[in-house]
Amino acid sequence: MYKIFTFYNYNKMNLKFVLKVFIIFFLIVSLIVFIHTIVINLNDISHKVVTIEGLTPPDTSISINKSDAFCENYKSSAGSLDKSCGKLTKNNCNTTSCCIWTSDNKCVAGGINGPIFNSDSNGKTTELDYYYFKNKCYGKKCTTSS
């Protein structure tokens, strides 16, 4: 009886080994068939060409200059521009293209042709003796000193 049991255990262990080998063999063959089916050629090493393009040149319509950016920020609202110009120093006022430094020593919204608003709070037209636009004096009474 012991010999029958030993023979049975030996065949059981041998059967497990044979079954494992068969499963591994089946998986390898299945993998080869799958690769052949989807047409992957493992012997063909192709080289991919990658083109690296440089950045496009910057958009020159975008204001980079601080004084241009200041004017661009208020271009749709002259009232806000006038208030903001009023907060600038004489030096900063003269660097912008949308503010002028007046003979009253104030910075107001304006350009080469003078201030945008040329009346006081009562609606009375104010006359300037001179004004500075981009450090150049304009007006009837321009002085040589700035």
Number of contiguous helices: 4
How would the global form be characterised?
rod-shaped
Secondary-structure content class: alpha+beta
Largest sheet: 5 strands, antiparallel
Low-pLDDT stretches: none
Rg, nearest Å: 44 Å
Q: Reading side by side through the largest sheet, how are the strands ordered?
A: 3-2-1-4-5
Strand content: 5-15%
| Integer count of domains | 2
Count of individual beta strands: 5
Overall helicity: 25-40%
Order of helices and strands: HHHHEEEEE
Q: What is the typical, i.e. mean, pLDDT?
A: 79
What does this structure look like?
The protein is α+β, with helices and mostly antiparallel strands. Helix content is 40%, strand content 12%. The chain has four helices and five strands. The chain has helices spanning 2-37, 66-73, 78-85, 90-95; strands at residues 99-102, 107-111, 114-115, 131-133, 136-138. Strands 3-2-1-4-5 form a five-stranded antiparallel β-sheet. The radius of gyration is 44 Å and the shape is rod-shaped.
